[in-house]
């Protein structure tokens, strides 16, 4: 699987999202990751489809939208219209999971399934894997940036990678939370191929160098 870096704009300057999106693109990121929080599913509020649409106008990077909201099925159309390339929804949210994934796929987007650190992999038993393009493993408790990476999640990543290979299902395994060069390296060794990096990229004056360093770490 191709290894990729998704720059998480939640760690950028909220007053200059257009410039931050362009900075991530010029730095060589593969995707632009947008964390959407509703203040209910997670104890924080970020931004909505209007901001996503504004960001889309300022970058050619694919928008990787992560819906950390209780009823994601109610917001799919808005984020599809906003220009998302992929939408990930949580297994723990209140929605008909396979139906939601199918709607994302039917719109021509890549469908992602997100799973929190404490959620066992067995909870995915009823998922129709033909509808899954991305599995997003949270490597922190969702809701706030700047948290420490949870090493225990790598066990889940290894099992997902094992299943992916055994069942020949080419879904991306994405990790999100506490990603820096060292944790990205460990996640890649476990089988993840998409690294969502926020603070470790946007806090650097030279983001291009930061992206290149992370790419070397996961090579």
Q: Which word captures the global form?
A: globular
Biggest sheet record: 8 strands, parallel, barrel
Reading off the top of the CATH hierarchy, the class is best stated as: Alpha Beta
Reading the helices and strands in chain order gives EHEHEHEHEEHEHEHH
Can you walk through the features of this model?
- The chain has 219 residues and is of the alpha/beta class.
- The protein has one domain (4-218): Aldolase class I (TIM Barrel, Alpha-Beta Barrel), CATH 3.20.20.70.
- The protein has eight helices and eight strands.
- Strands 1-2-3-4-5-6-7-8 form an eight-stranded parallel β-barrel, surrounded by seven helices.
- β3 (63-68), α3 (76-82) and β4 (84-90) form a beta-alpha-beta unit.
- The longest helix is centred in the C-terminal third of the chain and has 15 residues, at 153-167.
- The protein is globular.
- The protein starts with a strand and ends with a helix.
- The mean pLDDT is 96.
């Amino acid at each position: 699987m191709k290894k990729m870096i998704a720059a998480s704009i939640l760690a950028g300057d909220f007053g200059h999202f257009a410039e931050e999106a362009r900075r991530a693109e010029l730095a060589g990121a593969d995707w632009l990751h947008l964390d959407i929080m509703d203040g209910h599913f997670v104890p924080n509020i970020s931004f909505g489809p209007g901001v996503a649409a504004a960001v889309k106008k300022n970058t050619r990077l694919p928008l990787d939208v992560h819906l950390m909201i209780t009823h994601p099925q109610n917001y799919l159309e808005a984020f599809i219209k906003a220009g998302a390339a992929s939408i990930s929804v949580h297994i723990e949210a209140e929605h008909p999971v396979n139906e939601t994934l199918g709607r994302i796929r039917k719109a021509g987007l890549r469908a992602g399934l997100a799973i929190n650190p404490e959620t066992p992999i067995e909870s995915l038993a009823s998922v129709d894997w033909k509808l899954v393009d991305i599995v997003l493993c949270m490597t922190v408790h969702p809701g706030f940036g700047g948290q420490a990476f949870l090493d225990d999640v790598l066990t889940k990543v290894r099992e997902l990678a094992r299943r992916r290979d055994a069942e020949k299902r080419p879904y991306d395994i994405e990790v999100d939370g506490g990603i820096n060069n060292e944790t990205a390296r460990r996640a890649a060794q476990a089988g993840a191929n998409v690294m969502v990096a926020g603070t470790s990229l946007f806090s650097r004056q030279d983001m291009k160098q930061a992206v290149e360093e992370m790419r070397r770490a996961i090579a």
